Amino acid sequence: INIQISNIKSNIDGIYHGIAKKYINGYIQEHAWRFNHRYKGYKLMFSMMRIVSYSIVMTRKMLKDYYNNASVSDGL
After folding, report:
1. Which of 17, 24, 40, 52 is the Cys-Cys partner for 44 at CB 3.0 to 4.6 Å?
2. In 10 A of CB 1, how many CB atoms?
3. Which pLDDT value is given to residue 76?
C-alpha cells in the first residue's frame, strides 16, 4: 500500500502539479482505475470506448456542482 500511496503522490505532483483537497477522492479513484486496468494493453481502448458510450455527458458546471456539494467524507 505504501508503494501505491507514493505513486499517487508522484502522479499528483508530476502530472497535475498539486490539487485541491476536495478533488482528492476523484484522483484516488482515477489512480485505482488505472491500476486495475494496467494489464489490459490493447483492450484498454475498447474498454474505455464501451464505458464512455454508456456514460452521460458531464459538463464542467455539472462537475463543479458535484464537487461543491460533496464532501471528502462522502467518498465521492
Report:
1. 40
2. 5
3. 47
